[in-house]
Amino acid sequence: MMTWETVIGLEVHVELATKTKMFCGCSAAFGGAPNTHCCPVCMGLPGSLPVINGEAVRLAIRAALVLGCRITENTRFDRKNYFYPDLPKAYQISQLYSPLGRDGALVIDLGEAGKKTVRIHEIHMEEDAGKLIHAADRPETYADFNRCGVPLIEIVSEPDFRTAEEVSAYLMRLCDMFRYADISDCKMQEGSLRADVNISVRPMGEDCLGTRTELKNLNSFKAIERAIAYESARQIRVIEQGGVVEQETRRWDDVAGVSLGMRSKENAQDYRYFPEPDLPPLRISAETVEELRASLPEFAHERVERFGREYGISAYDAGVLCAARSFADLFEATVRTGADAKSCANWMLGPVRKRLNDVGASEASIRLSPAAFAALIERVAEKRINRAAAITLLEELLLSEQGMGADIDALIAERGLAQISDGGAVAQAVEDVFARNPAAIADYRAGKKRAEGFLIGQTMKAMGGRADPAAVKTAVGEALRRLLEDK
Ligand SMILES: [Zn+2]
Q: Taking the domains of the chain in order of start, what are their residue ranges?
């Protein structure tokens, strides 16, 4: 029985996070009513001329730098000709002869299997095509050109992957880094990150590559994993049965879980590329490159390691804190304001995370200032306010504009939230609650320990929720013990 090796290369398309399109001033936002983000340039009307979006070029250079590419100093655009109903110009402005970046690498983390370097062959700029909408209940197909001309980069890897896990680790690292550097939102469900997967198989130990097929239409990590497993098994079966794998483009049908032949794979000459005559060559100075390199942030995986070193936070917790840059920024700013790092992390991973999940808000919508957040954490530690009252305040301030300049001490005073630490007041409240709840006392005497929790709750309530829960628990426990001894 022959052992086979799967060889995988990726072509990843990423939409850049610009406000406007690659060659015109139309909105590059996702969605919108069909054909409302369009003008003569992105519709390809005769006589219109494209203008290069400088911000898109800067984001593309940042992406190339994130991936460790060499930046091409004298680059230019090429015209890729093909007809398809979602492409009104019948060509796409892309780059073939002098792509923006070359010879990069991305190190991926495979957990216990260690780290692996994936080589990047090139990264080039291009524009997106429109979308075809196939009506479910009618024979018509509709064209929406809103996406025509949205800035894209295509990242072509070397065939360095051997498993679906490596592919997933690469895509996740790519998304993390691009989000941190504000290059793209990388939302697969909105199509701002799309991967085409090239797959071939060869006998283990063989150096030459087998014939590859290209899988398109993969729009989730799960689909990519399933498609790789299916397609490599299909190719092995073809070869073992004495057949030959055809070089072709195949479509992945995620519902049926199969790949289907679409067309024989095109070569560059099929597109009749030529230099784009409507655009000048683009010169990228060394100063621009260095400026953009210096502007790159510390990335999530680097930050996770540092949080472990500096604050003693576990890798898992640091991973959650660092998943979104603004979330990790809030943590660090709050700690710098004087909050204890461990308590701050617990507050963020507990009540803050829960609040965001409950209302379906993103980390970026947090308005609470680091100073107010630190004050809240400190007042709880000082027992000036109890945890329940602090969570109520936190939930109120977290996403509201009021949270930016909130004065926590003033709010505690104004709302009468200050914790009652006076032992006499707690003792008095316990006495009152016991007097009002003879049935619970009888239950407790009869051995129903749950009655204790009820009495603690009643005492907290009697004190307007402002007592120190630990002090109430102790006071109720002691009072009950005295009752049993007196009997
Ligand atoms: Zn336009």
A: 4-291, 298-415, 423-486
CA of 37 to the centre of ligand 1 (A): 7
- The rounded distance, in Å, linking the Cα atoms of 350 and 435 is 37
**Residue 177 alpha carbon to ligand 1 centre in Å:** 29
CA distance 227 to 253: 9
Partnered with residue 151 across adjacent β-strands are 127
pLDDT in tens, 346-355: 999 999 999 9
Handedness of CA 48, 54, 55, 57 (dihedral sign): positive
Q: What is the pTM of this model?
A: 0.82
Q: How far is the CA of 39 from the centre of ligand 1 (A)?
A: 4
* Gap from CA of 275 to ligand 1 centroid (Å): 21
Q: What is the mean pLDDT of residues 392-401?
A: 90
DSSP 348: I
- Six token digits for residue 435: 């007097």
- Give me the CATH code for the 423-486 domain, please: 1.10.10.410
- How is residue 129 written in tokens? 């095509």
- pLDDT for 268 equals 66
**Which residue is it, tokens 């009752």?**
483
Read off the DSSP letter of residue 134: E
